[in-house]
Every structure is written in C-alpha cells, then in structure tokens.
Design brief:
The complex is a heterodimer. Chain A has helices spanning 2-31, 38-56, 60-86, 91-113, 138-160, 162-172, 174-179, 184-206, 216-231, 236-257, 262-276; strands at 128-131, 134-137. Chain A is mostly helical. Chain A has one domain (2-116, 137-276): ABC transporter involved in vitamin B12 uptake, BtuC, CATH 1.10.3470. The longest helix of chain A is centred in the first third of the chain and has 30 residues, at 2-31. Chain B is of the alpha/beta class. Chain B has a 7-stranded mixed β-sheet, with helices on both faces. In chain B, strands 2-1-3-4-5 form a 5-stranded parallel β-sheet, sandwiched between helices. Chain B has a two-stranded antiparallel ribbon with strand order 11-12. In chain B, α6 (189-204) links the parallel β6 (180-186) and β7. Chain B is globular, with a radius of gyration of 22 Å. The chains are: A mainly alpha, B alpha/beta. At the A-B interface, α1, α9 and α10 of A face α2, β7, α7, α8 and α10 of B.
Chain lengths: 286, 410
C-alpha cells in the first residue's frame, strides 16, 4: 500500500517536472540555447499566482491563464531584448546571457517581494482524494493533470499543426524556411512565448502546494536540466517520460534508501543512461 | 616635536571634551544568510541586530536595563554594524569573514545562523585573532576546538535534547505516555548535532527511537519521509528543519493525513515568522523551543518586541532574539574593553558576567566557560496555539495550558 502511495506521489511530481522541462527542451530543440533562467520563469509564475490570489481573489482558473499570459509576454521580450542579440555572439555569450538573466530576475524578485516565504491559501484547490487508501492531494492532482494535458498538447502542436511545422522548419534550416515564406524571428519568438508560458503555468500550479520564495527556481531548474538531458535534448515526449520516471525513482529511492540517497540514485541512473545513450532516451544523434 | 604634537593633542582634547576626540566608531561584522534558502530568517536576524545596536547606541531611551546602553566607556563612540551575506554557504562565510576582517577592519564578529557556516567561518576569525560571538548556531563542534576568540551565548544541542526528553516524560502527568520517538533532521552540522544529542538523551531516558531520518534541507519533496513516519507510528516526532522544508513537512502531513500525538520542532524553521504565517493554521499544537518570550505588556521584552514589530511588521522570534542577545553581550564586552582592540574585547568577553535581569532572553545569565560556551544558557518550550506561540513548559514559566495531542489542521 505504501509503495502504491509512493508511486502515485512520484507520478504527480514527475508530471510537473515534465511540464516545466518541456519548455526548456523546446528552446533547446529550436535554437540550441540552454535557458538558465527557466527556473526563474517558474518562480515568476508562482508570484503571478500569489498576486492574483492576494489582490484579485482569483482562483486557479484565473491565475493559470494569467501566469501564461504574463510569462509569454516575458518570453517574447526576452527573445527580442536579449536572445536575438546574444545569438550573434559566441556560445559562451548565450550561456552567460541567460545565466545573467536568471540572476537579474531572481534579485528583482528579492527587491519586489522580499526574502520571506509565501504560500497560497490551503483551500484554493481543496480536498484529498482517497482511492482505496492511497491519498492524493487535489492540488497535486490538478497540477499533474494540467501538466500532462499541456505537455501532450505541446507535442501535438509541434507535430500535427501548420504552426508546429513552421517552428520545426525554422529549427531545421533557417535559410530554407525563410525561402518558404516563414519569418524565423516570429517563430523563435513564439517558441520563447510557449516555453515561458509552460514554465509560468507550471509555477502557478506548483504554487498551490509549494512555498514561494525568490530562490525557488534554483532547486526546480536543476531537476529540469536533468529531465531534459535524460529525455533527450529537444524531445517533448522525452521530457514527459523522463519527468515521470525521475519523479517515481526519486520517491521510491527516498523511501527505500533514505532521503539523503535519493539524488544519488537519480543521478547515478542518469549518468548510466547517458553512458549508454548520450543523446538521452528519445533524443536524436546530432 | 613629539612633545609639541602631544600638547597639541591635549589642547584639542580639552577644546573638545566629548565628540570630536571621542573613540571612533567601532565596527562589528555581522554574517547572516541574507539570500538563499534561509534568507527570511537571516533578514529577520539582521533587523534584530540592527535594533540591538540602536538600543546600545542610545537611540531608544525607553528600553532600560540592557547592559552597556549608551556605551559610557567609549567616550561617545558608537557601534556600527557591517552586514555580510554568506548565502548559507560555508566557503562564502569564510571569504566574507576574511573580507570583514581585512577590508572593513571590524573589531568583532557576530553570526552566522547555519551551524555549518559558523563552524567554518569562526576558524578564520580565530586565525586572525578577532573575537566572534555566536548568537544562535547550536552545533556542538563550534566550541571545544581550543579556540580563544569564539564565544557562544545560546544554549546548545545537549541543553535542548534534555529539555525535550524531560518534557516528554512529564507528559505522563497529562495522562499521555510517550514511549516511541522519531527524529527527522536536515543533514548538515545543525541537524546532525541535535540528532546526536537527542539519541543520547533518548537512550538515557529509556525511550525507544523508531525512526531516524536524515534528509537534505534543499529537497523539493518530503512525502517519502512523512510516509516512513506514517508506517513506523512513533508517539512523538522531533523535526530539526529549516524554513522551506518545515513548510513542506506541514503541507505534506496534511495531504497524507498524518498526525502523531506530539510534534516538536527544533526552533529554526518553526521559529521563522514565515512558519506561522504560511502553515500555522495547519500546525496547531506544534511544540517548539524558545528562550524568547514576549512577556507582559509594559515589560522590557514587550517594549523591545514593539520596536521590532514597528520595524519589520513581525513579532520578534527566538532566532532573531538570540542574535539580538548576542549583540547585547558583545556590546557589553566592547564597552568594558573601552577600545576596538581585539585582545581587549576578547579579555572582556572572557570576563563576562551578566545576570538574568540584564538579559532579554530566558537564560539564567551569560558567563563563558573555558571553551567559550555560555554555562547559564537555558530554554523553555512553547506551543503554537492560534496564531502565536505561548510558553507551556516548564510549568513554573508557563503562560498558557498545554494542549495535546497535536491538532494539526483540525
């Protein structure tokens, strides 16, 4: 029974890992840029939820979309204001550019919101589901469900729609895409908007059961990088599978070997998988 | 020439009997986690230390009875705190201590919240012969290294462990037998030292330790720890945790419907104002230790609390209050030393003898042994009832009745 409880918890955690990692892998797949500020995007999503709940008294149906809108605007501005310029520079400029952005956003949050921990009210998404003794918190269930739907939605959009084809076209061959009448700048800005919106929604959903603090992005981002590398750079379904796997492995190993060893198990497995498949589970060999 | 200069100085001193020729301001370096996971506790402690310095410097004449108020021996010299952020990182703590000593030329140091940081950074102060007063880090290994310049005002792990066990044995009188215990502790010096002391105290008391769970405070998920507790069913659980993880524990315990008979939080996370504000409503009846109590309206402690509340919007918590007390003890020593000389301040600290009525905390006094540990430190136990902690143990200092079993969110 306890084992089932652990697996259920791990899957829900993993679904949220998948959601915020999907945006990261999208940007990597499109333009070979690692966005080190992705964790901060999640953090801002959490604060958007906090502000909406505190000042507008809105529920998840308000702050979810609000976080998506705010973050997609931020994503577009980051693309036009920063990424487009550093793309012309060397690789190291891109890495340090997004890293600098991460610090800027984190310390802006310190300035605006202070260092104190905040949480959303406990009864925002009330209740706990009891399935034959397995307890699942409604906030976690809602976050997991939203994450699953959005990650699958993002994958379908990339593979089944005209916009998705245009996005992939730009990522495969920018010149050829331009000749086909696609404007790469718009597509890349769209990718940033989608990626940031995913992070924002993930943040807003996590905020219903997590604490909010300017540094919260740090610990979440680390997991996201592992998920992306594990699942395969640029693969949204890979991020989904890797997210779920890592969630379950973390929970199981924390219970079996003790919480201190859970990350040892996860990262050992991670290194092992990369040794056999350096491109990740579903990644393509470059 | 020397005589000429000397008489010139003398003339100046006569012309400006106070002020201009005064002892310069004395800088005190204060290391705290002003960013990072423990930033909220660090910022509160910073406000507390600032307030203590204001009181010592004579800005709040309404506060009477604190030692060294007005710094009479410094000829108008004032204390000047220099804050440094170590982000909870021991190596940053060391480099910040070095910077404060070498660049800011501080006369003494104070800090640094996390035991792991204090342990590492005090070694730097010892090497350079700058006195360091530890306000709130409780790991046993911080003292007892043969250091001359490290002094600790707060009670330590051993004092707390025996308090917890004594309290649990006293529960028999409340008709509640506690036989089994679990310790859940974060795995740096702070958590492990409390856990070590607790294991000894538990064994000596003939209680049974049914779960011994260490974890990293940076964890993003604590459900497996809570599930382990749920499986082992201890009567009482002692959490040794920082703020972020404490919030996660309380939320996860509610989500997994887990309520032991007694929940004891060892200060840090449970004392951060963010704890009551964010999860107080679902952690009703949680026990905590505190050497700080607001006291009756009109008392010195209540007045200090009013000043702190006006400054920060929060009631003073145990962690910040212990750091304030450390600042008062240091100010008392600097005043007695009458100079910024590190050796004079060290000697004054070693000779410290503060009585209980000169303190804002519930210690029996401040008097350091050869290792630098305050031998008169003590603590009470408090319980979260409604939206504040009330003193409930020992009975002689209780201001409210003990309410058990642990209610949590009900």
């Amino acid at each position: 029974m306890t084992i089932l409880q652990i697996i259920a918890g791990g899957l829900l955690l993993g679904a949220v890992y998948a959601l915020f990692s999907a945006g990261l892998t999208l940007i990597w797949g499109m333009m070979n840029v690692i966005n080190f500020a992705h964790g901060e995007f999640v953090m801002i999503g959490m604060y958007v939820a906090y502000l909406v709940v505190t000042y507008l008294h809105g529920g998840p149906l308000v702050f979810g979309p609000a976080a998506a809108v705010v973050l997609s605007l931020l994503g577009v501005s980051v693309y036009f204001g920063l990424i487009r310029h550093v793309m012309r520079g060397p690789m190291i400029a891109q890495i340090l550019g997004t890293f600098g952005l991460a610090l800027l956003l984190r310390y802006l949050a310190f300035w605006l919101f202070g260092a104190n921990f905040k949480t959303l009210p406990d009864d925002l998404i009330p209740g706990t589901l009891n399935i034959g003794g397995i307890l699942i918190g409604m906030p976690q269930l809602a976050a997991g469900a939203v994450a699953l739907v959005l990650t699958i939605g993002m994958h379908l959009m990339l593979t089944r729609t005209a916009i998705g084809s245009q996005l992939l076209a730009v990522s495969e061959d920018r010149e050829a895409a331009m000749l086909m009448g696609i404007r790469p700048d718009r597509m890349l800005a769209l990718a940033w908007a989608l990626s940031a919106a995913g992070a924002g929604i993930a943040g807003a959903m996590i905020a219903t059961f997590y604490y909010i603090v300017p540094t919260v992005g740090e610990s979440l981002a680390l997991t996201a990088f592992v998920v992306v590398a594990f699942g395969g750079f640029g693969s949204v379904p890979g991020a989904l599978i890797a997210g779920l796997l890592i969630g379950v492995i973390q929970s199981l190993s924390a219970y079996v070997f003790g919480p201190v060893l859970k990350d040892v198990v996860v990262y050992a497995l991670f290194v092992g998988v990369l040794w056999v498949r350096p491109q990740g589970l579903l990644g393509k060999i470059a | 020439m020397g005589r000429l200069l000397g008489s010139g100085l003398l003339a100046l001193a006569v012309a400006f009997p106070s002020g201009a020729m005064a002892q310069g301001n004395i800088k005190v370096g204060v290391l705290l986690p002003l960013s990072g996971n423990a930033a909220s506790a660090g910022q509160q402690s910073k406000a507390g230390v600032e307030l203590a310095v204001e009181i010592v410097n004579g800005k709040h004449p309404g506060i009477e009875g604190m030692p060294a108020t007005g710094l009479p021996n410094l000829n108008g010299g004032r204390l000047e705190p220099v804050f440094a952020d170590h982000q909870g990182n021991p190596s940053t703590g060391q480099s910040q201590a070095l910077r404060l000593i070498q660049q800011d030329k501080v006369a003494a140091l104070l800090g640094a919240y996390q035991s792991s940081v204090t342990f590492a950074a005090t070694a730097v102060a010892e090497r350079y012969g700058i006195p360091w007063v530890v306000g709130d880090s409780v790991a046993a290994n911080i003292t007892g290294r043969g250091f001359r310049f490290v002094f600790r005002v707060t009670p330590v792990a051993r004092d707390f462990a025996y308090s917890y066990v004594d309290f649990l044995r006293d529960l028999k009188d409340h008709g509640m037998a506690v036989r089994t215990l679990a310790i859940v502790y974060e795995n740096t010096d702070y958590g492990t030292s409390i856990a070590d002391a607790l294991r000894t105290a538990i064994r000596e008391a003939g209680l049974q330790l049914t779960a011994d769970i260490s974890y990293s405070a940076n964890t993003t998920d604590v459900s497996s720890q809570v599930l382990q507790l749920k499986d082992r069913k201890p009567d009482a659980v002692v959490f040794v945790s920082y703020t972020a993880d404490t919030i996660l524990y309380m939320k996860t315990m509610k989500q997994l419907d887990y309520r032991p008979k007694v929940v004891i939080g060892d200060d840090s996370g449970f004392s951060d104002p963010a704890f009551i504000k964010n999860v107080g409503a679902i952690a009703q009846g949680a026990m905590n230790r505190s050497a700080w109590d607001i006291g009756k309206p009109g008392s010195v402690t209540a007045k200090i609390n009013d000043l702190f509340k006006a400054k920060t919007g929060f009631d003073l918590d145990d962690t910040s209050a212990r750091n304030m007390q450390a600042m008062f003890a240091l100010a008392d020593a600097i005043n007695r030393a009458g100079s910024a000389s590190a050796d004079a301040i060290q000697a004054a600290l070693a000779a410290t003898d503060l009585q209980a009525d000169q303190l804002m905390m519930g210690y029996r006094g401040v008097k350091f042994d050869a290792t630098g540990q305050n031998t008169l430190a003590a603590t009470y136990l408090i319980q979260l009832q409604g939206d504040r902690y009330v003193a409930v143990w020992p009975a002689r200092s209780a201001t409210a009745g003990l309410q058990l079993p642990y209610k949590g969110w009900q």
